[in-house]
Amino acid sequence: MSSDQSSAGAKGPAKAAIDPLDFVDTRALLSGEERAITDTVRRFVDDKIVNRVGGWFENGEFPAREIAPQLGEIGLLGMHLDGFGCAGTNAVSYGQACLELEAGDSGLRSFVSVQGSLAMFPIRAYGSQEQCEQWLPPMATGSTIGCFGLTEPDSGSDPGSMRTRARRDGSDWILNGRKMWITNGSIADVAVVWAETDEGVRGFLVPSGTPGFGQYQIHQKMSLRASDTGELVLDDVRLPDAAVLPGVHGLRGPLSCLTEARFGILFGALGAARASYAAARSYAMERQQFGRPIAGFQLTQAKFASMVSALSQGTLLALHLGRMKDDGRLAPDHVSLGKMSNVRTALDICRLARTILGANGISLEYPVIRHMTNLESVLTYEGTEEVHALVVGKAVTGLDAFR
Amino acid sequence: MKIIVCVKQVPDTWAEKRLDPATSRLDRASGDAVLNELDEYAVEEALRIAEATAGSVTVVTMGPERAAEALRKTLQMGADAAVHLLDERLAGSDAVGTSYALATLLAAREFDLVLLGSESTDARTSLLPAMLAERLGLPQMTFAAQVEVDPVARTVRIHRQTEAGYDVVEGSMPAVVSVVEKINEPRYPSFKGIMAAKKKPLETVSLADAGIDPEQVGGDHAWSAVVDFAQRPPRGAGVVVSDDGQAAHQLADFLAAEKLL
């Protein structure tokens, strides 16, 4: 075992080879801690998710009860929150974790986004001390699963039109309404439900099993199949006053949660893109047509150049927005731009990647079609591409085009 | 129990390695460096023993400045403290010199158990654990696929992996144990572990600090030297076996000729 320590320094670092999966060496922009967090998530996804997720997607299932405790053990659930069993990482680390999770599957990343940013975040930000103590520690370990109920069958981009209502009855509240397209909806132990009241929109913590509270799985999805999507039905659900989140009134509450989750998406979508590009690249190096690897053809190389360029730009944008968030300078408009831009970028990369694989591009043997169809959901959930474009449009013109 | 784990930072296991023609040493600047994989298993085993016995784990490495990254990773996994033996005069040490340096460093410290990976993925000699045990005058328990400690009786029992199966070997503590990958599945550093690692002690010691004689370490005092090396020749054209009913025989002959059967 020779220990040959070469003293680096005098001749300077050797010119590093290009990493095809990180062309402009964005890893160099990460701190040691951020790299370690990235590596832990990547290894977890490689070891525990990649080989199984195609099957989950095909069967339309996500083994949440098996996976959630593993996510919790790593510290992924509510990772960017402080206290109550949460790891308390910075925003860039959270973004990087989302990217690595989504390189596995958008459904896996959605699970973590919903648990951490949509269910745990409002409890941490707007909940009472008792609510934090009751819910956050088991949600951080993954033994308790949460969901977020804002969208309704007739209320999507315009959440102010929600019909779900909560009215006072003595010291209690009575909730009526329906929530639709709720990730983790049918399996959640607790739902953060937003309802209109006489005092504006309020958030309610609705435990599973509360009389009148129904949770149903939505079937016939062609996207995010390795993810639970549910419908919540609230039929005279009676809750004590202790169930309302005391810290926020109005749409600002749910919208602030969505800004948190979208921030994760603007990193996450690039994970799906990177995985699809990587699959296309290795396929093209192996696949022989006309007597040589298709990677050697100019049209294929043009596709790679386009994908690598878009991926590099998207990653740099994400990291920059992450640094702004950690500096406290990130506005919701920035997040809208990032989500709109990076999800579109990711979808374009996946579609290009899919063409390189030919018929194999539509098989679940490869990750590409799965990522591609998943991103069709990511494109419209948490604010459609169009609404984010209008947010950006308003920010640059001062003119509100949709309200 | 106090456990010391000796680790090494090695070039990325899957990367292509390059020798520097000027020094005949591994070009460490040319690629990513990682914690030697088998050492990760040693750290994991140490953490498990420490958790079961309310003990502590200190990780030691000898290597250039960058090797601190490997130590930090072990702290992220859960080790309590790390010691970095860092001195330019150590550069080029062979196994004899390395074992001398580490034994000198360890002899001044209190421990019940020394754990190491059974080999590094770069040098692959498996010499260090045995040499270290010999220099420390401690039981040498190598290639462990299972480790059981009895803190009361102060004994260690291992399953020593052999080609035929395993031997059960027992020794008294303190002892030096090297582990093989069958022993466990190393944990992922959790985010809390990663965040906590910043605050854990990472001590840097020089030859003088550790009382190591500079005349016994480094490339100039190594007992072995690389005289010459050559690039592995490019892979030649293989033999295509087409099945005319004899393919199985041909394959079997080939495997036998390569001593794979």
Architecture blueprint of SSEs:
The complex is a heterodimer of chains A (403) and B (261).
Chain A: H1 32-59, H2 64-74, E1 82-83, E2 86-87, H3 91-104, H4 106-126, H5 129-141, E3 146-149, E4 165-169, E5 172-183, E6 190-197, E7 200-207, E8 213-217, E9 229-239, H6 252-286, E10 288-289, E11 292-293, H7 298-326, H8 332-356, H9 368-380, H10 385-397
Parallel strand pairs in A: 3-6
Antiparallel strand pairs in A: 1-2, 4-5, 5-9, 6-7, 8-9, 10-11
Helix pairs in contact in A: 1-3, 3-4, 3-6, 4-5, 4-6, 6-7, 6-8, 6-9, 7-8, 8-9, 8-10
Chain B: E1 2-7, E2 9-11, E3 19-20, E4 25-26, E5 33-35, H1 37-53, E6 56-62, H2 68-77, E7 81-85, H3 95-107, E8 113-117, H4 128-136, E9 140-150, E10 155-161, E11 166-172, E12 175-179, H5 191-197, E13 202-205, H6 207-210, H7 247-257
Parallel strand pairs in B: 1-6, 1-8, 6-7, 7-13, 8-12, 9-12
Antiparallel strand pairs in B: 2-5, 3-4, 9-10, 10-11
Briefly characterize the structure.
The complex is a heterodimer of chains A (403) and B (261). By secondary structure, chain A is of the alpha+beta class.
